[in-house]
Specification:
Elements: H1 2-14, H2 19-31, H3 35-48, H4 54-65, H5 69-85, H6 89-103
Helix pairs in contact: 1-2, 2-3, 3-4, 4-5, 4-6, 5-6
């Protein structure tokens, strides 16, 4: 796992604004038990590119896991709006499902 994290960090040095790389690195940090590092990367993705829809789902799940339900709800709501704006109904439905599971 550490090898993948290091490799992704090397790739990010060459392409620091690559949302896919940041997202992949965040997922590796989650697997490694480092939610803080993952949260920082997910939030950086949303600041840089709020249309990177996949980040909303995974950041929301992370926030739920650490007990920040109201923050997760806000992330899911933002993600549903971004997915709807992008006409990405698959992602919208996934976000709506986790949102409803949390809210209702």
């Amino acid at each position: 796992m550490r090898d993948r994290i290091e490799k992704l960090k090397q790739f990010l040095e060459q392409s620091p604004d690559d949302c896919f790389l940041k997202h992949a690195l965040a997922l590796e940090h989650i697997k490694d038990g480092d939610d803080t590092a993952a949260k920082i990367l997910f939030e950086a993705n949303l600041l840089y590119d709020p249309t990177y829809i996949a980040t909303y789902y995974h950041l929301g799940k992370l926030l739920e896991r650490v007990g920040a339900q109201s923050d997760a709800i806000q992330i899911y709501e933002r993600g549903m709006k971004a997915a709807k704006d992008a006409r990405d109904m698959h992602s919208y439905n996934e976000l709506q499902g986790v949102y409803e599971d949390l809210v209702y």
